Amino acid sequence: MITRVLKSIGWSLLDLILFLILSAVILLILFGLLSLVGLHPFSSISIGNIDEQTSPYPMLLINYLPLLIAFVGASLLTHFKVFHRSYGALGYNMTKAGGLFGRGWLWSLIMVLPGFFILWGAHQLAMLPFSWHWGFVVGYLLFFLVQSAGEEVLTRAYLISMLETRLGTIVAIVLSGSLFAVLHIGNDHFTWIGFVNILLGGFIMALLFVEYRSIWVCTGYHAGWNFLQAGLLDFNVSGVDVYSLVQWKDIGYPRLTGSSFGYEGSLVAVLLQGVLLAYLLKNNSIELNNPFTNSNVQEVLPADNDYDTLISDEVKTES
User: Fold this and answer.
1) Residue 123 Ramachandran class (φ > 0 left, ψ -120 to 50 alpha, else beta)
2) Where are the beta strands (DSSP E) in 164-286?
3) Strands 247-250 and 125-128
């Protein structure tokens, strides 16, 4: 058993390295094409140096759209051409995509909107006049759709489906959610409450992916979570301040409002997401029964040929 797990970890690391290399190659090609028409990715504007006056369109078109294309392309090449996994493993199927995206968005609405009204009603926020700039509203909606989709392709579609076949569903969910949280540690105004919230969000989106076998539902949750906070309700999102339709002044307790890290730094969000996570864990209890084998998953996610060969050889050796 230990030998099998170690081999699984080794193949998973090789799989991840290949995915990252392919992503980098595709990204360099896309950046090269953009440079030919005078567009220079990451030359001046990035997620780390924007504010409420920054247009979302340059970042969307020059930085995050190429990143999404690179992740999707690398995941397809890795799954099909190298490890021969099924298309269903990635969750890219368009069947009911709109409905599943809407379901994820609705969950995010339930997580964010009540929290906003709780904080407002508790006099933690002082409302200011609205800031009407519909070009920015639409722009940040598109921006968070693309940015969230890219992160979901990496941490859910690719990572979960790759790890499940080798280490099981529970391990895949834990690693997916943990990596998602770790990726945000370097954000401005980082707090440990924020880390807990992002970790909870990572687990929630991983469970949504496992339950529906669709990238659309977790992208809906992620995009809704980011846009509702930042684009509509004036919270910073993971420490990043962008244009928002609603405007308010923080006059409350930092651990309730989240202060400069945003709603993700709020104990209110921890409570709401904790309840949702408990609900999803209860709904997925059958699928999560065994940490290393899951017959339902194996029907969708056939193990790759090289891994099967290694295990067969190991069994023969031991016998």
Assistant:
1) left
2) 247-250
3) antiparallel
Q: Could you tell me the two tokens for 113?
A: 């909107």
pLDDT in tens, 156-193: 999 999 999 889 899 999 999 999 999 999 888 899 99
pLDDT under 50: residue ranges of the chain: 290-319
- Bridge partner residues of 247 (DSSP): 128
Domain that holds residue 51: 2-318
pTM for this entry? 0.87
Longest dimension (CA), the chain: 75
Q: Measure the CA angle with vertex 309, ends 306 and 314; round to 5°.
A: 130
Buried b (16+ CB within 10 A) or exposed e, 271-303: ebbeebbeebeeebeebbeeeeebeebeebbeb
Classify each residue of 193-232 as buried b or exposed e, where b means 16 or more C-beta atoms within 10 Å of its C-beta: bbbbbbbbbbbbbbbbbbebbbbbbbbbbbbbbbbbbbbb
What residues contact residue 248 under an 8 Å CB cut-off, 6+ apart?
A: 120, 125, 126, 127, 128, 234
- Cα(80)–Cα(59) distance, integer angstroms: 30
How many domains does the chain contain in total? 1
The count of C-alpha atoms lying within 13 angstroms of the C-alpha of 213, restricted to the half-sphere facing its C-beta, is 14
Q: Are 171 and 147 in contact (CB under 8 A)?
A: no
Instruction: Give the type of residue at 275.
Output: V
CB 215, CB 153: distance < 8 Å? yes
Residue 293, token pair as written in the block: 């084998």
Locate 247 and state its tokens: 């405007």
Q: Please give the structure tokens belonging to residue 274.
A: 């904790």
**Half-sphere exposure (CA, 13 Å, Cβ side) for 278?**
6
Closest CA to 273 of 282, 264, 284: 264
Amino acid at 68: L
